[in-house]
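Lab meeting prep.
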Amino acid sequence: MIRLQTAVIFVAISLLTACSGMRIVDSDVTAFSAWTAAPPVPGTRYRFERLPSQTLATEQDRIEAIATTSLSKVGMALSPADAGYSVQVLLSTDIVQRYREPGYGFGGFGGPGVSFGGGSMGTSIGLSFPIGLGESYYKRAVTLLVRDLSTQKVVFETRALHDGVWNDGFAVLPAMLDSALLGFPQPPTGTRRINAEIPR
C-alpha cells in the first residue's frame, strides 16, 4: 500500500512539474471572410501595409515579423515586389488595475479598524486600514486585415482578444495570431474561444 501511495504521489508531482512548464493563451477570435478566390496555395505573395501612425513605430517591425511566421503557416509568403495581397496588423494593449476585494479602491479586507490592547508591561493602541494595492491586468487585441490588391477590397478580417496578468505581450502575440488565423481563409462564423500552449 505504501509503495502504491508513493507511486501515485510521484506521478502527480511529475504531471504538475510537466504542466508548470507551459501556460495557456486563451483568445476570443472573431473572423469575417469575403474571400471569393481559390484558397491561397503555399507561396501566395503579400506585402505589409501600415497606417500613418505605424510608419515610425519600431515596435511594428517586431509585430510584423511575428505575423510573417503565422501567415506562413496558412500558405502566405512575404514578397513586397510582386504581392497579390496586402496585410495590416494592429496590436493594442490596455493596462488596468484589478483589486482583490471591493471597497475603498485599495483591495483590502474590510474597513478601517481601531484596536486597544493592555497588559502587565504597558498599553498599545493600533490603527489598521486596507492598504492592499491592485495588480496590473493586460487586455490585448490583435487585428489582421487582408486586402486583395487587384480589387482593393478587404477579403479577410480577424480579431483575437486575450487578457491576463503577464506583461510580456510579445510572448503571447504568436499564439494570438495563430489563433486569429485558424480556419483561414474561410473561418467558422461567430466568436470562438481558442486555447494555445506556450512555454512559461
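Slide two material, second protein:
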Amino acid sequence: MTQTSTTRPDTSDMVRLHRVFRDAFGCAAQLVGSASTDDPERVACVAAYYANVLAFLHAHHEGEDELLWPKLTERAPAQAELVARIAGQHEGVSTWLEAAEIRLADWVADPNIDRGAALASALATLGAELGLHLDDEERHMLPLAAEHLTVEEWGELPGHGMRAFRGDKIWLVFGLIQEQMAPEAIAGMESHMPPPVREFWTAAGRPQFEAFVAALRH
C-alpha cells in the first residue's frame, strides 16, 4: 500500500518528538546533580520531570508497537527484516528504561550523592541506547512510514500516545513537544486539539508548563 506523493504524511514531526528525549537524557547529569537532600523542592521538581519523560517514552513505544511496526511489516515485505530489527530494539531500550525508573525511585526515597550518581548514569545510559534506536528510526523507518502509511494512520500516533501516557503532568509533554516546533506548527497542533483539551492547555496547561520549566532550568 504505497502512498502517492500528495497523500504521504509528514513524518518529520517524529524527529521533533525524538528531540524531547535526546534533550532530557542529555542533561541528566546536570539536572540530577543540581538537587540534593537539603533541597526537597528541587528534588521533587527534577524527579517529576524525569518520571513524566520516562512515562512518555513508554507511551511512545507502545504506540509504535501497536500502530507502526505491524503496518510496515505487512506493506513493505521487502523491508520486513529491517523493520523487525529496529522494532526489536524496543526490548533493549525497555531494559534500560526500567533500570532508570528503579534508580529514580531509589533517589526520590533518599536523594544522596551516590544514588544521584547512579540515577544520572542510568539516565545517560538509557539516552545513549535510545539515541542509537532513534537514529535508526529516523534514517530508515520514517521514510518507510511516509511511503506506506496514510496521513490518517500517521495521525493516530499522537492520540494513542496521550491515551497511553501514565504520568501525572500531560501538560509537561505538550510543552516539551511545542518547544521543538515552529510557531506555525504550534498553531496547527493546537487547532487540531479537541476543544476541551485546547481550553485546558491554553488556560491552565501552558502556564503550568512555563512555571515548571522555569523552576527546572533556573
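Talking points for slide two:
Confidence is low (pLDDT under 50) at residues 1-5.
Residues 40-75 form the longest helix (36 residues).
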